[in-house]
Structures are given as structure tokens and as C-alpha cells.
Amino acid sequence: MPTGRIRSGVTAGFAVVMTLTVAACSSSAPESRPGAPGPMPAPIAITPGSGADDIDPLAPTQVSAVEGQLTSVTMTNEQGKTVEGILTPDKTTWKPAEPLGYGHTYTVTAEGLTITGKTGPTTSTFSTLTPHNQTKVYLTTTGGTPLADGATFGVGAVVVAHFDEDIPDRATAEKHLSVTTDPPVEGSWYWLDDRNVHWRPREYYAPGTKVSVAANIYGKELGHGLYGQEDTKTTFTIGAAHVSISDDNTKQIQVFENGKLIRTMPTSMGMGGSEVVAGKTITFWTQPGIYTVMNKANPVIMDSSTYGLPINSRLGYKEAIGWATRISTDGIYLHQLDSTIWAQGNSNVSHGCLNLSGENARWFFDFAVPGDVVEIRNTGGAPLQVWQNGDWGLPWDEWVQGSALN
Predict the structure, then answer these.
(1) Residue 40's pLDDT is what?
(2) Please, are residues 360 and 265 in contact by the beta-carbon 8 Å criterion?
(3) Which residues pair with 335 in a beta bridge?
(4) What's the mean pLDDT in 24-49?
(5) E strands, 115-273, where?
(6) Cα–Cα distance between 43 and 46 in angstroms, integer?
(7) Exposed, middle or buried: residue 271 (CB in 10 Å: 0-12, 13-18, 19+)?
(8) Distances from the Cα of 86 to the Cαs of 36, 49, 70, 329, 362, in angstroms?
(9) How far apart are CA 49 and CA 245, in angstroms?
């Protein structure tokens, strides 16, 4: 005789005996005894439970068959949109295949099958939290150029994570930013302000280095009810080592590729001195320091009024300039200016840019990529500051102190 039938018969007989005994001895409920079985668990469990609210959209959401298997699971939001899910091969666990959204109400309905028959439907309705505000992060160079996936950048490339809202909790935000390299390098983040944090290695990258950047901020509170809007990531490669050195002692720019001198270009840099305009001091130095290529344009409209020098003033200007490669946030370029060829290599007559002949400016424009290094030596004026694209000029011990985690 099948085993299941014997067990069923024994159970039924035991139940009858117990019922008769209780009826004969007392009309009160039987006392619980040590070891007596408790209430049977529900055959299907759903997390979060029904009625839960302010749920983190990244918190575990799961349907489990406590016994048997799941035969049907549906999850919809308040608009009836279905959330796709993944069922384990043994059909005992189901999870959403995508992150949940902020400020939604979800309903999960599940059915199953056990050896005793169908179970369910079991339902849970819960709501995710609604952020006070959200912020998105953009991964760019110091020039605002996106760190495009698969692109090539120079050995001095600096990673910029730009948030579109002020970050109240820098430390939490930084914990969810990551840079990994192959081969590994030592590096650190540095906060310029509440919206911009830069990352660079201790030394220039080696050519061929693979760099992966990720901002995993979705579902993370970054202070005062501000949550990450979405995750973002990119991977790029470091190209050949382009390092250019402009020395005011010689008025020449030496261009090196992988340590080999490949071109020397006469230049004319900032004339020096300063002028006070409307209470603002404007200097005409090409500041010493380590710059990197930010972006380039041909032509670029150069307008002195953008930094406080009126066009109609003695030294003002507005004109289209060709083959312009930008290296600072406040408008220093290597660019063509044939009208100063007479001074290039022997004297400084510019407002701060590095003037080149048309041939040299075009060559450099074609040669350079964002992140290439341009070092300027032996000029006057104040040293280049970090906010001006002078990340590499800051000593390493000061740079690491700019991290919110130090």
C-alpha cells in the first residue's frame, strides 16, 4: 500500500481519538504542550510585506515559495505597468529584474503549487520612498567634455564627477564614486566645491592604461533628503604620453611623445603686468604650472569682456582665432596668431595665451587630445590654481586632504 495513504490514515485516526478524549474530560481548550507544533507558515512569502511604505527602491524585493514551487508571479505599479522578474531554476524564488523607482506603489501577486495542491494567490502592496530632491552626476574631463565610453585621453586626464545639485553629505557621495585602473594606480578624489569632485592618480598614467569610472548613487541619500537620480559609468583608455614644456627662458615649446622630443615651436606668452578695470585686477601673465588640454575649437571667438576687460578699452579685443587648444578654465589657449610671429621665440606680447604660427598651431591642434600635459615654466604671475585646471600642480599630500573621507 502506498506510504502516503498509511500516514494519512494514522493522522486521521489520531485526530479522532484526541477529539473524543477532549470531549470526555473537559469543555475548556487544551493546554499547549512543549514540542507541540505551532501555526504552519504561509506557503508563499513576499518581501516587503503588505502595507509597508517609504521602502528603499534598492531594498530586497522577493517572492519565496516556503514549500513547493511558484507557478505565477506578477508585479505592477500604480499605473498598471508590469515589472519584469527573474525566477530561479528551481522555481522557488522570484525577484525583479530591474531597480524599482522612487515614489511608486507596487502590488505583487503570487501563486504556487505544493503536494497538497494550489496555493495563493498571495498579495502584497507596498510603496517606495519619495525623495525631497534628486541629483544626477556627469562624468567629464576638466573641460566639461564627457568621458565617452571607449574614448582615448591623455596621461594627465582628470576625472570630474559633476553633480547638478549641491551635495550636503560629501563623504557619502564619495563612497559611491569609484575609479579602477588596469594596471592599478594610486589615486584620490578632491572636492573643488559642493558640486564638483576631481580624481587623479598620484603620477601620470602609463600609456595604455584602462580606466573605469562609476557613480553608483541611485537609491543613496546624499544628505538632507537628496537622493541619487541614476547610476552612471564609463570606461576609457590612456593614449600615448604627450607632454609639452613651454619655457619662458627660451620662448620655445618642446613637445614630447613617450619621452621623445618630436617638435619645437617658438611662442610668445603673456606680456605680464596688470590693469585695474571697474575695481577688478586683470593680469596678463601666462601663469606657471602644470596644465592639461581641456578642449579645442577652430575657430574660437575670443572676447576680452568675458573676463572683465571691455572690448573698447585700450587692451580689449573680440575676434575669431584659429586652431585654438584650451588649457585653462579662464581662457588660456595655444592658438594661431600670425600677427605676432615676429615676437614668437624672442618676446612676450600676448594677454596670457601662447601664440603660435598657423602651421604650428594647426599641428598642435591635430596632435593634442584632452588630458595631454602642458607644463609652463619660468613665467611671472601667481602659480596656477586647481580651479583654473591646475590639478597636477597641487602636492600629493594636499591633494588627498581634499577627499571628504580624510
Answers:
(1) 63
(2) yes
(3) 355
(4) 63
(5) 117-127, 133-135, 137-140, 152-153, 159-163, 177-182, 187-191, 196-201, 210-215, 226-228, 232-238, 242-247, 252-257, 260-266
(6) 10
(7) middle
(8) 38, 19, 12, 49, 55
(9) 65
Phi (first) and psi of residue 130, to 5 degrees: -110, 110
Name the phi and psi angles at 51, rounded to 5.
95, -10
Q: Which amino acid is at 231?
A: D
Domain ranges of the chain: 42-127, 133-239, 242-393
> Quick one: which H or E segment has residue 15?
helix 3-25
Segment 306-360, tens digit of pLDDT: 878 888 877 788 899 999 999 999 999 999 999 999 999 999 999 999 999 999 9
Which one-letter DSSP state was computed for residue 146?
B
Q: What is the pLDDT of residue 3?
A: 35
Strand 133-135 relative to strand 210-215: parallel, antiparallel, unpaired?
unpaired
Rounded CA gap, 157 and 373, in Å? 8
**12 Cβ contact list (under 8 Å, min separation 6):** none
Q: Which of 104, 198, 242, 353 is catalytic?
A: 353
* Residues composing the chain: 406
The CATH code of domain 42-127 reads 2.60.40.3780
Residue 63 to residue 94: CA distance in whole angstroms: 5
Give the residue ranges of DSSP H helices in 268-341.
none
User: 242-393 maps to which CATH number?
Assistant: 2.40.440.10
329 within 8 A of 309, measured Cβ to Cβ: no
Same fold across 42-127 and 133-239: yes
Given a contact cutoff of 8 angstroms between Cβ atoms, the answer to whether 58 and 101 are in contact is no
Given a contact cutoff of 8 angstroms between Cβ atoms, the answer to whether 67 and 114 are in contact is yes
The three three-digit cell numbers of residue 93, written as one number: 524564488
Q: Does the annotation count 25 as an active-site position?
A: no
Instruction: Establish whether 353 is a catalytic residue.
Output: yes
Q: Given 176, 242, 335, 351, which residue is catalytic?
A: 335
Helical spans, DSSP H, in 26-95: none
Type of residue at 326: R
CATH of 133-239, one of 2.60.40.3710, 1.20.1250.20, 1.10.565.10, 3.40.640.10: 2.60.40.3710
What's the pTM value of the predicted model, to 2 decimals?
Answer: 0.84
- Taking alpha carbons only, the member of 173, 102, 92, 158 closest to residue 133 is 102
Q: Residues 205-221: what's their mean pLDDT? A: 98
8 A C-beta contact, residue 354 and residue 265 = no
Please tell me the distance from the alpha carbon of residue 267 to that of residue 226, in angstroms, as a whole number: 49
